[in-house]
Amino acid sequence: MRLSDFSVLSFDCYGTLIDWESGIWEALRPLIARCPEPPAQEQALAAFGAAESAQERKTPGLLYRELLAQVHRRLAGEWGAAIDDGEAAAFGASVGDWPAFPDSPAALDYLARFYKLVILSNVDRASFAHSNRKLGVAFFAIYTAEDIGSYKPDPRNFRYLLDRLAGEGYRARDILHVAQSLYHDHAPANRAGLASAWIDRRRGAAGGATPPADASVHYDFRFTSLAELADAHRAGE
Fold this sequence. Notes:
Elements: E1 8-11, H1 20-33, H2 41-58, H3 64-78, H4 85-92, H5 104-111, E2 116-121, H6 125-135, E3 141-144, H7 145-148, H8 155-167, E4 175-179, H9 182-192, E5 195-199, E6 221-223, H10 226-234
Parallel strand pairs: 1-2, 1-4, 2-3, 4-5, 5-6
Helix pairs in contact: 1-2, 2-3, 3-4, 5-10
């Protein structure tokens, strides 16, 4: 299997193109400063990942910025801090402030010369629009949880991707799904019959804001950055 075998790259955004862990940590600082026993960064990110996944299962139709506000309230309760609705709303609105990984814009610009680029993201459209300005590329299609009514790893999200791209003339074998999260993306991509490329931003380190995945999850390519994927394509891999 070679990267040139595909004509569409479908991307997760947050964790893959946007540095969501840095963004989440920065946006949680006001809450953490009020905690009687402030969690360390890795502890805070793991708690966020668990709370976010639970909230996505509970309220799959909730807009992501509103879902994040609920996650903030959950974390305040877990960490023994008073719930502050204004602070929770600000956390929900913080997605647009989360930084792009430094390599994302240039790598996307290069890849857009050879592939249709598609977003499949657990986000609302307004929040993604802010992030898209940081990425600097026009995507062929953008599919969000707001459009679909569920959050990855729900299989409905990948069925939506496949159905919409089939309408554009692309089959599953034409698509390579590119993502950081083994839990949110690679596991359901496996079940949907899609090839996938793992962007291992944490370079093999466990933890962070992504819940652990089942040991059976597999992927077809592994890179530690999007720049590495672009370089592999240049090299004909």
